[in-house]
Amino acid sequence: MKAPHVVPYQGSKRKIAEEILKNIPYKIQGRLFEPFSGSAAITLSAAVKNLANEYVVGDKYEPLINLWRKIIDFPDDVAREYKYLWNSQLGDPKQFFAECRSQFNIDNDPVKFLYLVARCVKNAIRFNSQGEFNQSPDNRRLGTNPDRMRKEIFAASDLLCGKVDFRVGDFIDILNDATSNDVVYMDPPWQGTSNKKDPRYAYLLDIELLTRGLEDLNSRNIPYLLSFDGVCGGRSYGNGLPEYLDLMKIDIHAGRSSQATLLGRDDMTIESLYLSPALIELSGYGNIHEYHKLYA
Ligand SMILES: C[S@@+](CC[C@H](N)C(=O)[O-])C[C@H]1O[C@@H](n2cnc3c(N)ncnc32)[C@H](O)[C@@H]1O
User: Fold this and answer.
1) Is the CB of 34 under 6 A from ligand 1?
2) Which end of the chain is less packed: N or C, by CB atoms within 10 Å?
3) Which CATH number fits domain 14-71+164-295: 3.40.50.970, 3.40.1260.10, 3.40.50.150, 1.10.275.10?
4) Is 185 in the pocket of ligand 1 (CB under 6 A)?
5) In degrees rounded to 5, what are phi and psi of residue 228?
């Protein structure tokens, strides 16, 4: 079974979810945490593989988590409301998008958020300095067809209903009760995309705070995987992480970037995945220091 594709989110790990999850070669005894969930690609793929019995899906952006709650608990409502919005745009899509965006900036309605993500340029959400959604519509398409959206919504609900604890907040708080029986997958907003005027996500992460969070997880012996920096066509995004965290870096070949495809170039995107000392131990890689000696 393929993982459902509900929230089309730029930066989604959907296409490389399998590659990432290969690094958890055992059934998780506790919960799988995804505290920077976005489109929850890793949770959905893990649930298809039955990698854990319970999941924690969190994000700092509240409308996104409210959307996920509603998708899983009230799939019919989401499918109907999305269809209503989608059909309402047909007279004047541009004008309707502008109205829906203004209303969303007042009421933060989760299904309006789904419509806006599905319809906006490159499915890339953008916010102004007041925290208002300000991305433009993609005028060449209308967004995921409502019949297809209904199928994907119900598939996600069937997969995760009764198994997920949704949390809104900072990743450190979301991971407050994580234990060494759990596994955490983290995909914080990249440093490389974080310093721009018009940030890609609602919230951006400070590298110091991320590092402190990782230190804390290490001290609690929590197995985790972290997607962090990336290299595309020889250009590097983001700095590596401090050595004292004892993380193992793995290259994931993510295929051609959409930008490279547009420009007709062959740049391959390589994404880095870092495994924590506790996960390395459990995965049978053995001691991280031995590993480094072996492959130095
Ligand atoms: C790179 S995206 C995650 C994409 C996700 N892996 C996927 O497959 O769709 C990063 C997410 O982290 C959220 N975020 C930013 N800062 C955060 C924080 N301090 N704690 C929790 N979530 C945060 C953003 O709202 C955004 O949804």
Assistant:
1) no
2) C
3) 3.40.50.150
4) no
5) -130, -90
